[in-house]
Amino acid sequence: MKKLKSKSLKTIKKFTLYPLLLCVLMLLSLLAVSAPFIGNAVSVAGMFMSDKQVDYSKAYDNIFVPTDKDSETVSAEDVEFPGIGKQFGELSVSGTNVDAKLFFGDGKVPLRNGVGIYAGSFIPGYGRTILVAGHNNTFFNGLKNVSKGDVVKISTSYGNYKYTVTGTKLTTDEDKSAYDLNSKKENLILYTCYPFDSIGLTNKRFFVYAEKTSGPTITGLYE
Question: What is the four-CA torsion angle of 198, 98, 144, 146, rounded to 10 degrees?
Answer without folding.
Answer: -160
